[in-house]
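Input/output pair, single chain:
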Amino acid sequence: MIDHVSVGVRDLAAAARFYDAVLSVIGYVKLDDREKTKGWGKPGKHSEFWINARPEMTKVSADSGTHICLRAKNSELVDAFFVAAMKAGGVSDGDPGLRPEFGDGYYAAFVRDLDGNRIEAVTFVK
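Output:
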């Protein structure tokens, strides 16, 4: 149903470094590298996750409602996503763990990128 998503970033180069580190651990590679936009997707597929240069935008507020969730194959990759985000300058918005309030086996981590966009990695454990 959804073909792709994109988020605005103030510093395209810094955001690209952040997302290279974070998305690579859950199997995404940079497929598009244009002057004002970058896109990641699964190898051999199309870009599903994009960042777009918006140098004049203000940092996203915590109550903006923006939330993008990416599927990971297992809980170890959710953990790796979180660690990579913290090392790359992200901020925790929910450490990795089970979230029974979202359903049985819902295991996720929530981070804020360099611009405040809320990004989640999720898997379902049995």
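The mean pLDDT is 96. Residues 12-24 form the longest helix (13 residues).
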